[in-house]
Sequence to fold (214 residues):
Amino acid sequence: MLIRHFMSEEVATLTPDTTCREAYRRFREAGVRRAPVLMGDRLVGIVSERDLLRILPGTLGQISTLAGEEGLQIPVETVMAREVVTVHPSDHLEAAVQLMLKHKIGGIPVVEAGRLRGIITESDIFKAVWGMLSSARGSRIIFEAPQELKEGEIDYVGLSIAHGCKVRALLRYPREPGAMYFMRVEGRDVDAFVQALWQHAAKVIAVERGKGDA
Fold:
């Protein structure tokens, strides 16, 4: 899954001299919580609603007050983050998730050949995951891998294929005592694949049959 398939291409952008008042207004109109800052075609920063709230405490909720009026005239270049984490459209979605968790951010500009191509946000990733979970194709299988197994020690995709099932989605959630897996598979003999999971010491928690799957 590549970022280009899930990113938002319509991006609300700002310039360095945009005032915080104008940035706040655009956030509300576009229904966004962050915006890249461009100087021409060059990405020079990013501003989030959190940045505005942090740098101007108490003003955004009191825009009509004198303090709010003065504070919101500050240009966004004063409050923007200048070291911007970016991703490429051909990066895997997992790369964006890892960067968001590492840097504790909710959105990352997508840049290709020095130009802004879009933005990938936590909402985009949630929609991608929900699309995989809620797809009507195939049977859903939730199981827990043995605690003693190392990641990748058992090829669950290969195991599925060996039992005549095509893998439509595979999600892994690391936890104790063993990693949890969600798989959506499609085929005539899902039962054989489920039995193979048990034989490999996986604890099958739930199986929800899809149409046409045995």
